């Protein structure tokens, strides 16, 4: 069964044994969240918009498959507020304007394109989107409109368009009078028809005008129009309805999709954009009773009505009408003529949602295939908030660069590439991404020989080779000699790289095409591998009342090609009509094995086949069948004998949502990942059980999965929330390899990815982190370390066994010769003392050793209170030095960072509450520049010299501070003491304090007490060390003359300073001690000389 376990007690989960222990308790991994890396530069399809009328800075938008997003600052920044729900495919949003904290959301989009996403009913929030409650209507699937009675907010109407691929009764208008507790279906025409539009009279909430639309989509065509379509009006809240017909002025015959707009300033004025045998714009001036055709100009009214057929009226001007389709157009003469005000050069094409402020019609919010557009001057100018990462990726790929790049194509937003992380300060920005081909984007495949080049596709089977540096593209779509045979390429065609020959690629139509020269020439290596059903190849007739021929319905095509990486010549092929074909001889012969797959629905969609990396005869087939109507079940199958027999790995009891993608870990065969319409699922027992990975990834469609093998990163391509990266899945590998038993250990240190010694550049563009600047989560600099602590009760603090007993301070009592008073004095010990070190059991310690087994650093972290898997960062530095003049740290304080480590292999020993475990990490030089060990060692020599100087000066300033403390204690002892002896001692003490101050200021500088901005430069030993360190540290190129001179100057100044310190303690301080020893007061000690150890 499927499990989602964010609220279970960890202790209970970790008490599992045997088979149960192999289920993955994801709450244990809450510190291992996937990174959302965007991008947001192209955003994605917006299907719903609403805003608070009394405070329009509060805006809500719904994404087709990316959840609900909220802005509280007029669109400057946006946050997702629906991610905790099991279905985030959005069709409608409505705010209760009398109490804007109340929101209604209908799931399932209302524009039934070929990649339409399915909903599961209606949701309600009473706290502005912080929490949600499912309010039913599950079986309606997709809800396109929601209206709230402004006089009684318990009355809500939901307009269900329904499942576009099926026929069912739960469609039409539903009404609640109790705030969603119960619903009544108040308008229904037939099982094929749902609500295309629905408006309410602003002066009479019982009057609704509804457009019902009969439509049906299959895998190979779309039909709009039929007897179930029509324009309906109710005056009594849905108790009775009047259907408007030809007799009322509407066109005769069947209708298709109808868009409705009612004027707020004149509710008797209603517009209807009607799809019919001849499309037209109609107007009523009597509240919808009688209608007049305004125009049937095809350039205005024939614009893909299945995808956008909506119209809106300016709330202050009943003659100003907006039409949204590919561009946005406006009419100032009640619809007689239109002028485009936002074409493709201004705003992304294909508009689906539109909101006009009812009191200020200058404010318009538009939603389209490329996100949100906002105008504050009635469409003259537009702004695009590029901060909403809701891209719909069809496919995902990675290369092997450092940092590695991710590739993918998006619905109506082209093909892109960008980094999984950057060596730059801050987050991953939109400009880090590069478009490589326009159009609808699909699979994008880097050239394995040179990632500068790659292959990208657009609709209709168009294939191009791109050059990222020059922007050049070369189109490579294969052809065949028989020009009479039409090649059938799927909307989302198949491409594959041959794993044995880097110059060989495969491409799919109904045939498999092979190129041995990167697309320059092609050969066909298969017969037609599809069902080749002529009845499913009538795409030129698709659309119904209005033709819509875009290649989106191309059928009997190849969807996936999967060559084996283990056995040359083994190639798997999946088609959109259910075939699973296999060749074991490079295409000479083919076998269709779909009849051997138990339970696979007839003519199912086969979007992915994955050839195993562990067994040449093993493969995994992903199938779904929701296009047949009501089958939303997931299908993933496994064979280990070249397709002779199959085992089903997922079903409705194991995962939620139909299956879209699959990946078996190439290192650990028991670790598997599945992508469904509702998120990412993980199995650590070869598919026996599955758990939803809810750490950072919402229930968005996971269309594709890729593994960057060098870094063990899982890259998740979603159809609605762009891209996620789950860094370093090695902990999951270990769980899978041990059958989950790793969680039974008190402490586990997991293998880390290789680290790189790099300098981070400043980001390009605007340097400040403004709220409208999108920055996706970047990797932290250094290296992420992952470990696991078994949850249990905390124990009391304990003292470490390694602590040495501290030397007791020597106390003696002396007698003041003049007064006879006893005075307690403390004599500082003559050697360094290690005080008792307290180590708390709630702290993890990581001791790091170099290849010479030298302990170079100790990290510490207090883990999250829930324990489980934790992550911390090592910045690749050794233990740092305390700076001269600084206070001594507590023994339990974290170590400061020091010099950057050298390339090499390091051992990390983790310790927590008595338990230990260890792992290793490789630290590599900067891959962007040539590595020269001699140069690196020369620089390290300079660093070592600076560190020696710092260490010695710190010891010197510690002595100065200790000596000064002794003189202050002496002054306190001498207070109110009379007599020449004490007066002379006070004078000597003051002279010593003056000398200490002068010497210290020469080393660390004078304190500046005066207020003001900045401080004048002081040439001190410390300032010279800082200057030299700023030049020397953190670089990998050859030392410059300036650096060498700065270090030499620091050497000289350090020797001079130490000489002054030594001279002071051997002369003035020694004399002062003798004076003190001649009195009954003893608070000072002797100091030996510090010998400079700097090599120069």
UniProtKB/TrEMBL annotation:
| Residue stretches in coiled coil | 939-977
Keywords carried by this UniProt record:
Coiled coil, Repeat, Signal
**Where is the sequence biased in composition, kind Basic residues?**
805-814
Record's keyword annotation contains Transcription? no
Disordered: annotated span: 794-828, 878-900
The uppermost taxa in this organism's lineage are: Bacteria, Pseudomonadati, Bacteroidota, Cytophagia, Cytophagales
Carries keyword Signal?
yes
Q: Which organism's genome codes for this protein?
A: Pontibacter cellulosilyticus
- CDD domains for this protein: Sialidase_non-viral
Protein name (Swiss-Prot/TrEMBL):
Sortilin N-terminal domain-containing protein
Gene3D superfamilies, per database record? YVTN repeat-like/Quinoprotein amine dehydrogenase
Signal sequence segment: 1-21
Span-the-membrane segments of this chain are: none
Residues annotated as domain Sortilin N-terminal:
122-244
């Amino acid at each position: 069964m499927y499990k989602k376990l964010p609220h279970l007690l960890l202790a209970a989960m970790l008490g599992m044994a045997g088979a149960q222990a192999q289920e993955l308790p994801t709450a244990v991994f809450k510190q291992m969240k996937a990174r959302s890396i965007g991008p947001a530069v192209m955003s994605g399809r917006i299907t719903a918009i609403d805003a608070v009328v009394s405070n329009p800075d509060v805006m809500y938008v719904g994404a087709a498959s990316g959840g609900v997003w909220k802005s509280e600052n007029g669109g400057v920044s946006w946050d997702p507020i629906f991610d905790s729900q099991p279905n985030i495919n959005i069709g409608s949003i409505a705010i209760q304007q009398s109490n804007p904290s109340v929101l209604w959301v209908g799931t399932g989009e209302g524009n039934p394109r070929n990649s339409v996403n399915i909903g599961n009913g209606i949701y309600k929030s009473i706290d502005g989107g912080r929490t949600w409650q499912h309010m039913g209507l599950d079986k309606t699937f997709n809800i396109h409109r929601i209206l709230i009675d402004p006089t009684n907010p318990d009355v809500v109407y939901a307009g269900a368009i329904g499942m576009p691929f099926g026929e069912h009764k739960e469609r039409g208008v539903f009404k609640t009078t109790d705030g969603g507790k119960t619903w009544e279906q108040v308008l229904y025409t037939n099982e094929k028809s749902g609500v295309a539009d629905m408006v309410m009279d602003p002066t009479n909430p019982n009057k609704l005008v509804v457009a019902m639309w009969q439509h049906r989509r299959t895998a190979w065509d779309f039909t709009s129009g039929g007897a179930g379509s029509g324009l309906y009006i109710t005056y009594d809240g849905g108790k009775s309805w009047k259907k408007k017909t030809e007799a009322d002025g509407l066109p005769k015959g069947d209708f298709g999709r109808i868009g409705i707009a009612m004027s707020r300033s004149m509710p008797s004025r209603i517009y209807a954009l009607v799809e019919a045998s001849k499309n037209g714009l109609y107007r009523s001036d009597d509240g919808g009773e009688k209608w007049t055709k305004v125009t049937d100009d095809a350039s205005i009214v024939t614009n893909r009505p299945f995808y956008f057929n909506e119209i809106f009226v300016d709330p202050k001007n009943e003659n100003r009408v907006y039409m949204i389709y590919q561009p946005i157009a406006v009419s100032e003469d009640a619809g007689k003529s239109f002028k485009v005000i936002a074409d493709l050069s201004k705003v992304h094409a294909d508009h689906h949602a539109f909101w006009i402020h009812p009191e200020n019609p200058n404010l318009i919010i538009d939603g389209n295939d490329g996100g949100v557009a906002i105008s504050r001057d009635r469409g003259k100018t537009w702004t695009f908030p590029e901060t909403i990462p809701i891209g719909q990726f069809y496919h995902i790929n990675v290369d092997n660069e450092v940092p590695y790049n991710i590739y993918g194509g998006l619905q109506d937003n082209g093909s892109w590439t960008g980094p999984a992380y950057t060596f730059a300060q801050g987050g991953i920005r939109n400009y880090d991404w590069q478009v490589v081909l326009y159009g609808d984007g699909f699979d994008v495949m880097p050239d394995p020989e040179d990632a500068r080049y790659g292959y990208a596709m657009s609709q209709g089977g168009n294939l191009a080779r791109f050059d990222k540096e020059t922007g050049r593209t070369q189109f490579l779509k294969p052809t065949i000699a028989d020009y009479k045979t039409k090649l059938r390429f799927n909307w989302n065609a198949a491409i594959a790289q041959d794993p044995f020959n880097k110059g060989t690629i495969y491409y799919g139509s109904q045939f498999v095409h092979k190129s041995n020269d990167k697309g320059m020439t092609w050969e066909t290596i298969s017969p037609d591998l599809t069902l080749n059903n002529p009845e499913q190849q009538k795409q030129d007739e698709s659309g119904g009342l209005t033709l819509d021929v875009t290649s989106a319905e191309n059928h009997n095509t190849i969807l996936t090609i999967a060559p084996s990486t283990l056995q040359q010549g083994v190639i798997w092929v999946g088609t959109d009509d259910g075939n699973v074909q296999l060749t074991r001889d490079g295409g000479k012969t083919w076998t269709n094995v779909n009849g051997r797959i138990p339970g696979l629905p007839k003519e199912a969609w086969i979007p992915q086949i994955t050839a195993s990396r562990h067994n040449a005869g093993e493969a995994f087939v992903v199938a779904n069948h929701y296009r047949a109507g009501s089958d939303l079940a997931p299908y993933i199958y496994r064979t280990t004998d070249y397709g002779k027999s199959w085992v089903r790995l997922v079903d409705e009891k194991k995962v939620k949502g139909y299956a879209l993608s699959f990946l078996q870990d190439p290192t650990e065969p028991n670790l598997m990942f599945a992508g469904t319409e509702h998120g990412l699922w993980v199995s650590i027992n070869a598919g026996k059980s599955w758990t939803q990975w809810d750490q950072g990834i919402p229930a968005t469609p996971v269309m594709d999965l890729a593994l960057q093998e060098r870094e063990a990163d899982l890259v998740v391509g979603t159809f609605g929330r762009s891209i996620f990266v789950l860094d370093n899945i090695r902990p999951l590998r270990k769980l899978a390899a041990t059958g989950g038993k790793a969680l039974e250990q008190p402490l586990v240190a997991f293998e880390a990815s290789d680290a790189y010694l790099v300098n981070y550049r400043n980001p390009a563009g605007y340097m400040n982190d403004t709220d409208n600047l999108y920055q996706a989560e970047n990797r932290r600099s250094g290296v992420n370390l992952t470990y696991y602590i078994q949850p249990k009760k905390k124990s009391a603090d304990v003292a470490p066994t390694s602590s040495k007993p501290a030397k007791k301070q020597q106390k003696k009592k002396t007698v003041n010769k003049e007064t006879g008073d006893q005075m307690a004095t403390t004599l500082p010990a003559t050697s360094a003392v290690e005080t008792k070190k307290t180590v708390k059991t709630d702290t993890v310690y990581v001791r790091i050793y170099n290849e010479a087994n030298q302990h170079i650093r100790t990290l510490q972290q207090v883990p999250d209170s829930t324990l489980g898997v934790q992550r911390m960062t090592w910045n690749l530095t050794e233990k740092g030095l305390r700076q001269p003049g600084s206070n001594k740290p507590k023994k339990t304080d974290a170590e400061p960072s020091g010099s950057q480590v050298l390339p090499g292999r390091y051992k990390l020993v983790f310790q927590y509450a008595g338990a230990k475990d260890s792992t290793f990490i490789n630290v590599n030089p900067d891959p962007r520049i040539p590595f020269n060990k001699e140069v690196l060692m020369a620089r390290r020599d300079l660093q070592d010299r600076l560190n020696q100087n710092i260490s010695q000066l710190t010891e010197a300033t510690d002595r100065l501070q200790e000596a000064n403390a002794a003189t202050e204690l002496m002054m306190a002892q001498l207070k109110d003491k009379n007599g020449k002896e004490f007066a002379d001692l006070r004078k000597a003490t003051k002279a010593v304090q003056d000398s200490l101050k002068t010497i210290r200021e020469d080393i660390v500088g004078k304190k500046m007490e005066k207020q003001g901005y900045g401080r004048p430069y002081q040439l001190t030993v410390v300032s010279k060390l800082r200057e030299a360190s700023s030049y020397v540290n953190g670089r990998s190129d050859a030392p410059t003359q300036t650096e060498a001179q700065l270090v030499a100057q620091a050497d000289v100044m350090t020797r001079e300073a130490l000489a002054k310190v030594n001279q002071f303690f051997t002369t003035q301080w020694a004399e002062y001690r003798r004076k003190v020893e001649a009195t009954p007061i003893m608070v000072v000690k002797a100091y030996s000389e510090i010998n400079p150890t700097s090599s120069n």
